[in-house]
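Weekly puzzle thread! Below is a chain. First person to post its structure in token form gets bragging rights.
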Amino acid sequence: MKVKCLLISIVLLSFLLASFSNAKDVGGNINLDTAWTKADSPIVIRFSVVVFDGVTLTIEPGVEVRFKSGTSLLVSGAL
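Winning reply:
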């Protein structure tokens, strides 16, 4: 029974680690048209992000965007 529980725990941990290994960290200024794709998801905003006037940030449907404490997304351009 203990071996079965250990195996299940290892499998669940593997899935959890795999989901975080694909995370894309972002932060800072976006001064060129940019797309956040589902392949890059989750997007983790580590430092506040600013989208400049005249610039477009496209976030594909299904993309998960996570904000670290104290961060923000300011859009002066287009979202």
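Puzzle host: Confirmed. Bonus trivia for everyone else. The chain has one domain: 23-79.
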